Amino acid sequence: MRTEAPVAVKLSDYTPYPFEVEQVDLRFDLDPEDTRVRADLKIRRTGDKSAALELDGEALELKSIAIDGTALDKGAYEVTESGLTIASVPDEFTLTTDVKIAPASNTALSGLYMSGGRFCSQCESVGFRRITYYPDRPDVMSSFKVRMTADKETCPVLLSNGTPGESGDAGDGRHFAVWDDPHKKPSYLFALCAGDYDIYRDQFTTMSGKVIDLAIHVDKGDAERAAWAMDSLKRSMKWDEETYGREYDLGVFNIVAVRDFNFGAMENKGLNIFNSAYVLADEASATDADFEAIESIVAHEYFHNWTGNRITCRDWFQLCLKEGLTVFRDQNFSADMRSRPVQRIKDVIRLRARQFAEDAGPLAHSVRPDTYGAIDNLYTATVYEKGAEIIGMLRRMIGEETYRKGMDLYFERHDGQAVTIEDFYACFEKVSGQDFTQFRRWYAQAGTPEVTVEENWKADSNEIEITLRQKTPATPGQPVKQPVPIPLNMALLDEEGNLAEWMTVLEDEEVTLTFDLPDGTERPLVSVNRDFTAPVRLARSLSREDRLQLVRLETDPFNQWDGVQTLAKEEILALAEGSQAEPDADLVDAIATAIEGALGDPAYAALLTRLPDVGEMFLERQPADPVALNKARKKLQKAVAGKLEDLIISVLGQPSPQPFDPGAEQAGTRALRTAFITLLAGSGREDADTHLLKLYEAAPNMTEKLAALRGLAGLEGEARDKALADFEEAWKTNPLVMDKWFSVQAVTADAETVAKLAAHKDFDLRNPNRVRSVVAVFAMQNLSAFHAPDGSGYKVVEEIVRKADKANPSLGARLLTAFEQWRVLEPQARSEAEACLRRLQGSDLSKNSADIVARALG
Ligand code: ARG
Ligand code: ZN
């Protein structure tokens, strides 16, 4: 059987819902196999007199239906696979439905499902329709009241949105609880959790003096591991007050951690639900990267309370309105908690790895698309990360103060509403007096703009001319692009530092800037897109000497780091293409010197040791040969490791900081240590494996233990086997840590090893974290093996994804995006990838996956 890709939904088809839902009363009678949901919807007609009442509903068994207490005749309504229609309804009425759902058999993890024997929900985007019949669209906002009953013993804790009300005994070993949410909300923000948890509690006093009860619900025995998440939550609450003047608006704030979750976390009003990977952490079991991710995701979901919940999206095309803005907010929070330049570099690494790749392939779409097939597939790096970059450009162009005024106006004008990108920009037009019509092209045009920089130094007149040109490549469905305003921070550099510093907004296709410099000035170097002010690719034909010089003179930390990246990219390409046999000594020196010069800021120094990933190189030259690129990258890494050998051995000979603290300072020290562990692993030293094994055994924290294990995993031999066996034995009962055990192997595995990992007794197709720890890691971070020219990587992934997709379409589709780069590959891998996609297209896939495959094949 073959699944057709879903029919496209179009932004231009938007029409308001013709009814208002004034009040929603939900009654849940919770049972794993037979949960009953009764919904009383108080509805009032607001549109067309003749409009039928159309409600969404999926995988529901309708038990009864009544209007104002009178059961409807069979002929009065129609039930389909996707909903329920009542042709004729009064102007004001209460609709009562009773449905049966089976949370225990819900493997899609959308709607109400079970994880670890507890009930939980995920409604964004369209999960609520799997709970009850409802207009499941974000522009229908209503007041929700929930009453649930459940078994007392297995479900002592009963949670939903808002504030807790009455609770008590319900007879028959059951009990009940009522939750009331005073804030109107769309259905995608509904949440319900019931089960037995350990609870980590704290309080937060808001700026107006209200005391909020905070609680994080976790698996039994895990409470202490929620301490960092709680600390992050309190800092987020404070930051949003100080930075945006936003106060929390309910008396309680609950977080529930669940092991089976399709994404990172979800911002349900007053009841955030998290993938447990982004809640639980301690020194022994979590890396600094985990601590950092927890901090930023806790912040992200908390910040949604204002940017997403109080003001939500009119329709799903506007997803970036809440996601881009909220990512921008969480990135700035992290920058304030840690180091701003380091944060910026990490954000750009992520943007380039995921968003630039997406923008350059068949899945490219605009930040606000005007059509989509499957809504779940819209939760992309483009919507999130590029969406955040656009807000960053907006802020740079109008300045921090005006930006804040615009945000204040946005909150004031639109609180309680479901709005659009246009509504958002109207606020900034008002406070700045500027017109953002052209700027909004950033939302409409897919593709990463390329900016070409040309310099012309006139020595006799001490003049420098800088010509900037922009061009956005064609993307699927968008052959012709218009220029977008590109804010570029720039500087002229000489031996003394900055000769000049300014921002140019490149509005048109081309602009030439001319600078008259004082007599006797040497040719200055031009620093472009400092701090990565714009999400563009730069094209400059500079000599290696000029590039080396730029790295040496650069005063902007981002650009210094990026200068090293560019040099490394060119070197890897030269080595991969065979135009050079060995790494250039001057270049290796320059990298080593930059690292040595940065040792005072170890987090930054660690980033300087990073070489561009194979996937990033795909954007540089095509067709791309991942196997050759991987070899070339390793060669360069080995040369850098050799150059820094003494430093590496001496740094790793020092003890790790004690006692452990997850904060930025110690994390920076550990980042450098792990960077050096990685270099040691790639050094080719004969004793590398025994040295790594010692480091593995002695490591007092997971950050360094895992770095040593990762290093070992890439080396054949006894030390590797010993460490992997030891790690498995030590952590076999901790699933989050076992995910790491699977990942360190997948990241260096060949197809055969992946098949073995997938056959391991702890590999669980139903658990997204576990599946991702093998399949996503292999397909997205181990590109030379995934894109193996014999097609073995594709075949092993195909087989697992087919199974995963059956149970969980959202997971299946996400994994399949790994194929997005197939067209740029060398001919052998390319034809194997295409054959695999064709096989998938001809088979029975979920709608989500069919959408990805159809677009990938384009
Ligand atoms: N809103 C959630 C967040 O920002 C993510 C929800 C993902 N939902 C989905 N259908 N992909 O963190
Ligand atoms: Zn979000």
Automatic annotation (TrEMBL):
Q: Which reaction does it catalyse?
A: Release of an N-terminal amino acid, Xaa-|-Yaa- from a peptide, amide or arylamide. Xaa is preferably Ala, but may be most amino acids including Pro (slow action). When a terminal hydrophobic residue is followed by a prolyl residue, the two may be released as an intact Xaa-Pro dipeptide
Q: Which Pfam families match?
A: DUF3458, DUF3458_C, Peptidase_M1, Peptidase_M1_N
Q: Report if keyword Metal-binding is assigned.
A: yes
- Which cofactors, by name? Zn(2+)
User: What GO biological process, any one, is recorded here?
Assistant: proteolysis
- Domain annotation Peptidase M1 alanyl aminopeptidase C-terminal: ranges: 545-857
Q: Which InterPro entries match?
A: Aminopeptidase_N-like_N (IPR045357), Aminopeptidase_N-like_N_sf (IPR042097), PepN_Ig-like_sf (IPR038438), Peptidase_M1 (IPR001930), Peptidase_M1_dom (IPR014782), Peptidase_M1_pepN (IPR012779), Peptidase_M1_pepN_C (IPR024601), Peptidase_M1_pepN_C_sf (IPR037144)
Enzyme Commission identifier(s): 3.4.11.2
Which residue intervals define the domain Peptidase M1 membrane alanine aminopeptidase in the entry? 228-442
Alphabetically, the GO molecular function entries are: alanyl aminopeptidase activity; metallopeptidase activity; zinc ion binding
According to the entry, every stretch annotated as the Aminopeptidase N-like N-terminal domain falls at 25-189
Enumerate the spans annotated as Peptidase M1 alanyl aminopeptidase Ig-like fold domain.
447-539
EC class: hydrolase
| UniProt keyword Repeat present | no
List keywords of the entry alphabetically: Aminopeptidase, Hydrolase, Metal-binding, Metalloprotease, Protease, Zinc
Q: Which NCBIfam families match?
A: pepN_proteo
PANTHER family xref list = PUROMYCIN-SENSITIVE AMINOPEPTIDASE
Q: Name the job this protein performs.
A: Aminopeptidase N is involved in the degradation of intracellular peptides generated by protein breakdown during normal growth as well as in response to nutrient starvation.
Q: Which family does it belong to?
A: Belongs to the peptidase M1 family.
* Stated name of the protein: Aminopeptidase N
Organism from which the protein derives:
Hyphomonas beringensis
